[in-house]
Specification:
Enolase-like, domain 1; 15% strand; TIM Barrel; 442 residues; homodimer; alpha/beta; three-stranded antiparallel β-sheet; 17 helices
Chain lengths: 442, 442
Amino acid sequence: MNQPASFPGPRPARIVALDTLDVRFPTSRDLDGSDAMNPDPDYSAACVTLRTDDPALCGYGFVFTIGRGNEVQTAALAALAGHVAGLSVDALVHDLGGFARRLAGDSQLRWLGPEKGVMHMAIGAVVNAAWDLAARHAGKPLWRFIAELPPEDIVAAVDFRYLSDALTPDEALQLLRAAAPERQRRIEQLLAEGYPAYTTSPGWLGYGDEKMQRLAREAVAEGFHTIKLKVGLDAADDVRRCRLAREAVGPDIAIAIDANQRWDVPDAIGWLQQLAAFDIAWIEEPTSPDDILGHAAIRRAVAPMPVSTGEHTQNRVMFKQLFQAGAVDLVQIDAARVGGVNENLAILLLAAKFGVRVFPHAGGVGLCELVQHLAMADFVAISGSKEDRAIEFVDHLHEHFVDPVVVRDGRYRAPLAPGFSAQMKPASLRDYAFPHGRAWQT
Amino acid sequence: MNQPASFPGPRPARIVALDTLDVRFPTSRDLDGSDAMNPDPDYSAACVTLRTDDPALCGYGFVFTIGRGNEVQTAALAALAGHVAGLSVDALVHDLGGFARRLAGDSQLRWLGPEKGVMHMAIGAVVNAAWDLAARHAGKPLWRFIAELPPEDIVAAVDFRYLSDALTPDEALQLLRAAAPERQRRIEQLLAEGYPAYTTSPGWLGYGDEKMQRLAREAVAEGFHTIKLKVGLDAADDVRRCRLAREAVGPDIAIAIDANQRWDVPDAIGWLQQLAAFDIAWIEEPTSPDDILGHAAIRRAVAPMPVSTGEHTQNRVMFKQLFQAGAVDLVQIDAARVGGVNENLAILLLAAKFGVRVFPHAGGVGLCELVQHLAMADFVAISGSKEDRAIEFVDHLHEHFVDPVVVRDGRYRAPLAPGFSAQMKPASLRDYAFPHGRAWQT
């Protein structure tokens, strides 16, 4: 039968459903992931799938959580269904900035943040799923999809609201244009060299000294140049662990430490002065992620020890102030905490403008898979730097992903498959669905 | 039958259930509550009831939202059920500090904030319900229950984590002890005089000029000394509305304005300079509630116009910084945004230490009912001041509450019924339950 005249080609794809799933891994049964604030996490993901009427085209996203409350996060994803139902894929992939602004700007949902916490993380996951869909549609891995967008399109993806006292659209455009001539060369370089990784695997608080030292030595043998230890439960323990780690890896390996928000400002200062002797690469999350002025005070007091935060920093407005206040020497970004790729582009542009290096947060469930794309896009199209920074790596739970990260010789290899590497394997979704999956029946 | 020896008295009450309900009022059908950021709110409440095995003893709380997403907020309340089931009422009412810390400190749920957004507001509502229960148990209105606690008990209720660089428990105790000798006199004074109110009823953006002027004159006739106008959509409109309002009320009535986060920092400064001529009592929420440094910059630029924020300020760490940075001349507190009575006590203590006046945010559903208790407790036991401040009042939706606020001659009368005035009428819960209540069937 002939196509009628009003349908000259195939019908353009539309989004027909926003599916959600509560997925949890019973990681609290061992002590992987234990730190000073999180003694027994069950690494979890509130998963979202944007389904289109083309069965071969979906977009995948998720929020990482650590167990209880993952059902609340899943409910927040479902609350966004009205924003995607019926949306044309073409319209979506050509206006990812407008899409993200519509979600973050829903005046009724905005009350639940604004732009923070459960609702904002849900928006981030749906926005990330839209970018996954767009990159799949374009047949490119997300890092390359972003890195090959015209500078004007990257600027259009960013919500500059509340940023204009620190970064204007024009400044962002100049920055992106300055990096553009070297894009193609950097893509080749990235494909050849990969992107530096650092590892937190030796440093969980639940591990004994010998296991920590063994894992630290193994990390060095595997090619990592930076390791990270969790600290903050007991000062004497931390002094001993830093000394033992330094003995294990020698003087040429960077050792970062992470207090996971354990301290008040005066406590942080006193505690860190005891650890100054071990040539600390950075102290991460010394206090509340909300305490911009507190980080600035700690940084002044413990200099030259570099201070860092960011994995729990709720949005671009907080990052802006961390930079304006000179509160940090470097920052983490997290792919599943803020309002998706768009807001992370805003943060990467701010970091580039303020000359602050980014060491992306990863681990958990799928955070490595996601954040590598953002770091690589940053290298190609924004900062132009990668050897002075590194992406966190924890070798855990990657087997559940269709396109898992590949880390070799201490470096993330650039992903080649189309999309954001966010899709989990159907068997994993089935077995770890909460509370009825097989893993939760024991 | 004789009581066995091991049960010498009546069995002590325990909490047996945490019930939740999604309640919404279709307020978007008119334009009450319209402002520059919230054009069409459906004022809503995610309600929680702590039920005990004594049918006469319950604790009531709620989170105020503006419509969509109220189901997410309700799911977050339900996620806290495990923290209350089986709890002895005696243990609860004697350790409201420990209770609030256990909820905020749940390491898995904490990931969803930390201490911000949907999960933190849910914790706040459950904590408020516990205070309601405690005050009912004691047979006192909450303001008086708090105001008659020993200073040590108030200090024990506060979580000083992340505050000690600005306020220590010892400093808080000194402050409370200094206010203690006048408590009884102030209770009598409050019962006799009431507490000043101000009204936002004339100022919604959806109202025309004549209606605004008429309502402003009526407010003055009713005894209010301060009115508030919404601004931020159109600068020329705002100049005209401020001029008309000033003409309507004369020179002796304070006019505050509220931009509901509409502006970037440079925009706020330019816009406010056009309104300086109208003797503005304060500009509320000129920009993002997260932007501490932005408020400080605006305040410096528009001085002497007082700058204010707080109704969306997520927690005590942000209030601490607003005070440390000199970012505000006064603040709003909100009874249903932060982690409950405990965190509001921390904020009131911080405000007292920094000498910042508090003008509590109210309106919405039941916010007046709640926040009056906090302001009155502050007057009696913390700041000792009330005539230099005022509680917001909007005459809307009070008919749904069992113990509604009474505002006469521009003053809140002190509530006398036991509890936190948080209980809604059963008929209202039935008719406005979403989506199956009668109000949602049309």
